[in-house]
Design a protein that fits this description.
Layout (H helix, E strand, L loop, with lengths): L1 E8 L3 E8 L1 H15 L15 H8 L5 H20 L8 E8 L2 E9 L5 E2 L6 E2 L8 H15 L1 E4 L9 E10 L2 E14 L21 E7 L12 E15 L5 H7 L5 H34 L1 E2 L4 H21 L4 H7 L4 H7 L1 H21 L5 H15 L3 H7 L2 H20 L1 E2 L35
Parallel strand pairs: 6-13
Antiparallel strand pairs: 1-2, 2-4, 3-4, 5-12, 7-11, 8-9, 8-11, 10-11
Length: 457
């Protein structure tokens, strides 16, 4: 293999012209023949025994070229990229220039890690909310506890909206029962909207022991057999229940929490809610800072780099679904789409993740950030403790270089965020485009490995 030409192209790509010598390609063709001859029938020869020249005479001299190209291409490509010192970050595009007895010549468009420069990364400005908690907020936090402690009690009166009616029912279409239209001792909360429109409203005013025929027309978007059809439900009310909420006092607080008084319980609910809102405000602030950082990024990002990140997002989502016993294809169908559509919808997220990673890589280079062996070992131990694994298991499963890269990105992110200030970011004035790109503060850039950003939202 030899590279006969290397030419820089737009958007951080390099086109390599790669030649595989005749001898190497001939060996690949011979291997393709040996692999495929058992599947080729040639009159006069036992299956798998026909000489290569006979087969080539029947089907053409290039009958084994496709398999031969597929066999030699990956190795030749990898060797060429390594020889040229390229940091390949995407899927290459290949074009065959010439193939035959003299060997193989192909072009490969290599996506390389772009030079990434940020012209500002310290003192970035982003808005940050200052959370407050009102009495109403605390009362809303209390509501789920009240709901869980609420009991249903039987009452001797007609049904009202909000009551729970215990009913038997059966549906008839054209006088005949239909599948799925029958239930016994069913507890239905009136006003919940859980039954077909018009059903619950017609129960209001009935009492235990009453029976009634309900005229119902199913919605047009209902199941095909019943969509838009007029039916009759015969209903018998067996019991009427109303909700009895608890008395919200100190005894209630003791029952639903570890606190002795309602005041202490509410105080704790308010403090926890305030903490959550502070964490949410900080997270929003940090995301806004990263947005500002990306706005200061100068990088010619190749499309293939984004494509790789899209596949990472999809693989991550596929694995999370698998953990829940679901296939990605089934999920996509359930959501009314397909996997390709889902993948394409991840493009903006993938682009932003690539931009953030490149911007942080530029910060790492500009600040000459380092990670010690001790820091890597501490992270390995943290992961072992978190997932209840042996340290050796973590060391075998996660490459030290990958951990180092993650820790470097975390350091860069922390540096940018810690130096950021709260406020509204300045709007850039619209100016005529300069003749040349603005000079960065520092142009030194270290070669960095690709690293995946936190998973997609």
């Amino acid at each position: 293999m030899k590279v006969t030409n290397a030419e820089k192209k737009e958007k951080s790509t390099v086109e390599l012209t790669i030649q595989v010598e005749a001898e190497e390609f001939e060996a690949a063709v011979q291997q393709a023949y040996l692999k495929n001859r058992s599947r080729i029938n040639v009159p006069g020869f036992r299956k798998g025994k026909a000489p290569r020249k006979i087969i080539e005479g029947m089907y053409g001299t290039g009958v084994f070229y496709e398999d031969a190209v597929n066999a030699v291409y990956p190795g030749a490509y990898d060797q060429a990229v390594k020889e040229q010192g390229l940091d390949d970050v995407g899927y290459p595009k290949m074009e065959i220039v010439e193939v035959g007895k003299d060997g193989l010549i192909f072009k490969a468009l290599v996506s390389v890690r772009p030079e990434a420069i940020v012209d500002q990364y310290k003192g970035l400005t982003a808005p940050k909310a200052e959370p407050v908690i009102t009495d109403e907020d605390v009362e809303n936090e209390l509501k789920p506890y009240i709901t869980r402690a609420t009991r249903l009690i039987s009452v001797e009166r007609p049904i009202e909206t909000g009551d729970t009616a215990v009913i038997d029912f059966e549906g008839f279409k054209d006088g005949a029962p239909f599948e799925g239209g029958k239930g016994e001792n069913y507890s239905l909360q009136i006003g919940s909207g859980s039954f077909v429109p018009g059903f619950e409203e017609q129960l209001v005013g009935l009492s235990a022991g009453d029976e009634k025929d309900l005229d119902i027309t199913f919605p047009a978007d209902y199941v095909p057999d019943l969509a838009g059809k007029a039916v009759v439900f015969h209903v018998k009310v067996k019991e009427v229940k109303q909700s009895q909420p608890p008395v919200v006092d100190d005894e209630f607080a003791k029952d639903v929490s570890e606190f002795e008084t309602l005041a202490d319980f509410k105080k704790d609910l308010g403090e926890k809610l305030l903490q959550r809102r502070k964490e949410s405000a900080q997270s929003s602030f940090e995301n806004a800072v990263m947005e500002q950082l990306v706005a200061h990024l100068h990088a010619d990002i190749p499309d293939a780099m984004v494509e790789v990140q899209m596949d990472r997002i999809m693989d991550d989502f596929r694995n999370r679904l698998a953990g829940q016993g679901m296939k990605l294809e089934d999920y996509a169908e359930m959501m009314g789409g397909d996997v390709n559509g889902m993948r394409e919808s991840s493009r903006p997220t993938a682009l932003r993740q690539v931009q953030v990673e490149l911007a942080l890589s530029a910060v790492i280079a500009a600040e000459d950030l380092q990670v010690s062996d001790e820091e890597i070992q501490a992270e390995q131990q943290r992961l072992a403790d978190q997932y209840k694994l042996e340290l050796a298991q973590v060391q075998a499963a996660v490459a030290a270089e990958d951990l180092k890269r993650d820790l470097l990105l975390q350091k860069a992110s922390r540096l940018v965020i810690d130096s950021a200030v709260v406020g509204e970011p300045e709007k850039k004035a619209e100016e005529p485009a300069p003749a040349e790109k603005p000079k960065p503060k520092r142009t030194r850039k270290k070669k960095a490995e690709a690293a995946e950003e936190p998973k997609a939202e």
